[in-house]
Amino acid sequence: MISKDLLDILCCPETKADLVLDGNTLVSCDKKTRRRYRIEDDIPIMLIDESEQLSTEEWTEIMKRHGKM
């Protein structure tokens, strides 16, 4: 599990946007890129090439769920 302290200092490596913890992934709050980074063994994989770009609909749903809209 990612600690709140670690989450507070992590940001999207592409845009420097804040991240939200959504299940076992971190999702960028940047609407343009909509990146999702996986977490393996409690270690965030913050490589842009290994991230996933979410659809606008999925990203919006996650942001609403986390109070970021």
Give an overview of the whole structure.
- The structure is a single chain.
- The chain is α+β, with helices and mostly antiparallel strands and 69 residues long.
- The chain has a single domain, classed as Single Sheet (N-terminal domain of TfIIb), CATH 2.20.25.10.
- Helices cover 23% and strands 26% of the residues.
- The chain is built from 2 helices and 5 strands.
- It has helices at residues 4-9, 56-65; strands at residues 19-22, 25-28, 35-40, 43-44, 52-53.
- Strands 1, 2, 3, 4 and 5 form a 5-stranded antiparallel sheet that branches.
- β1 and β2 (25-28) form a beta hairpin.
- The longest helix is centred in the last third of the chain and has 10 residues, at 56-65.
- The chain is globular.
Please tally the β strands and state the result.
Answer: 5
* CATH C-level: Mainly Beta
Q: How far apart, in Å, are the first and last alpha carbons?
A: 24 Å
- State the helicity in percent bands: 10-25%
Apparent shape: globular
Oligomer description: single chain
Low-confidence stretches are none
Strand content: 25-35%
Nearest-integer average pLDDT? 96
Secondary structure tally, helices: 2
Structural class: alpha+beta
CATH topology: N-terminal domain of TfIIb
Describe the main β-sheet briefly.
5 strands, antiparallel
Which key terms come to mind for this protein?
69 residues, alpha+beta, N-terminal domain of TfIIb, 5-stranded antiparallel β-sheet
Task: Present the secondary structure layout.
Layout: H1 4-9, E1 19-22, E2 25-28, E3 35-40, E4 43-44, E5 52-53, H2 56-65
Antiparallel strand pairs: 1-2, 2-3, 3-4, 3-5
